[in-house]
Every structure is written in structure tokens, then in C-alpha cells.
Amino acid sequence: MNTKFGERVAKENKKNDNRQRKMEGFKTTQQSTKQSKSSPLDNTHIPKQEPVEIKHKYTFSLKPSVRAKIEKIAKENNYKSSSDLLNTMFENMD
């Protein structure tokens, strides 16, 4: 009976030690995070994103053969749609 009690106490002590180490590590991480956030010289570069242009639906007519070619090119180049391909093509024109 005493050995079981002793084993149980040893397990609880080990759990408490592990918890204590985890908490100390957590506190250290929290302190370093706070320091890095408040430091203006941490060399963090946040790039600005381009403004988002809202897409609108338009209807226009194409010959079926032209539409098939557009869809084929889009599929071959891993575009999610033929509209996405056309958007990319026209955005890159100057």
C-alpha cells in the first residue's frame, strides 16, 4: 500500500514539475513577444497590398470556337476560370 501511495506522490510531483516548467517557458515567451511588439527597430517590413478592385459581371458574345479556345488555355495554365485568365491577360497589357 505504501509503495502505491509513494508512486502516486512521485507521479504528482513529476506532473507539477512539468507544469511549472511549461509555465516558466510560457512566461518567457510572453515577455519576449511583448518586447518585440514594442520595439520599433525590429526590422519588420509589412508590404502594402494593392487596392482591391471589385469585380462586376458583364455579358458579351463570343463564337463557340473562341470560347472553347479560351477555356482550353485557362485549363492548361491552371486558371480557376476563363474569366480569371482574361482578367490576367488584360491587366498585364499596357
TrEMBL record:
Residues 1-25 have a biased composition (Basic and acidic residues). Residues 1-52 are annotated as: Disordered. It comes from Staphylococcus warneri. Residues 27-39 have a biased composition (Low complexity). This is CopG family transcriptional regulator.
